[in-house]
Amino acid sequence: MTVRVRRTTPRWHTHELRLGTDEVTKRYHDTQAEPAEREWRALVLLQRHAPGLAPRPLRRTPGRHPDLVMSRLPGEPLRGTPVAGPALVALADSVARLLDAVPPAAAAALPERRAGRAEATAQIRQWYARRTPAAREPGVAAVLAEGMRWLERPWPAVAEEAGLEPVLGQGDGNLANFLWDGERVRVVDFEESGRSDRAFELAEITEHVGSWVDPGTAFDAEEFLGLVPLDAGERVRLLECRRLIALVWLLMLTRDDPARPRNPRGTVRAQAARLDALLGQVC
């Protein structure tokens, strides 16, 4: 039996899933081959270096809308659930394993993940220059202005990329991409994956709107981060990365269509408060 599921990701792509008993077929609606190539490459690397953590790549078909067939994993998405106790520990363990899995030399050879620092910064500037009415509301506008002032300041030297060990970054921290079976967490959705670093990938998870916006989600970001070992420099970089991603999300959320909102009422103001807290935080 095959079930067809259409899924929309929160950024730029849409794809369709066909769920079989043992296999999942992912059809990419992006007419470019890049998302499929990124996903296939990541799954091949993880099958080699961390088997069982992600779907096993089975086959792919090229074309205008490429298909990728992978093994079907057990478990349910963590998004919309209370991510605490054993589930939180398992999530931290799997994320740490993912970040340690691919040898640095192999990770260094990868193209940079989508929406890395440079791409995110350019997107922020573009969106800020074309602010929507939601971005001009007094409380939101003030936080955005402070965020833009922060964006133009140099990062601390210890937070810069130079000397960081490269990792395979999954590229999409949506908790829906982490499947919990009661014992283990496995990871799916690598179409934005590529070369990254530990701090950026952890910030991607903690600052993704899916980590807090849904009723039923209970995810303590600070507790989660305390379960993943980081050195002092990575902790400084982590705060800067969290600020950057939170600023991206605030501007993205202000662009939501008010006639067809995808998030609960008050989400923009709640995101502004989250960014404001991060801007005031001292590492």
TrEMBL record:
Please verify whether the record's keywords include Transferase: yes
Q: What region holds the Aminoglycoside phosphotransferase domain?
A: 20-216
Under the heading InterPro entries, the entry gives:
Aminoglycoside_PTrfase, Kinase-like_dom_sf
* Recorded superkingdom: Bacteria
Record keywords: Transferase
One annotated GO molecular function: transferase activity
Q: What is its EC number?
A: 2.7.1.-
Q: Does the keyword Transferase apply?
A: yes
Q: What is this protein called?
A: Aminoglycoside phosphotransferase family protein
Q: Which organism is it from?
A: Streptomyces evansiae
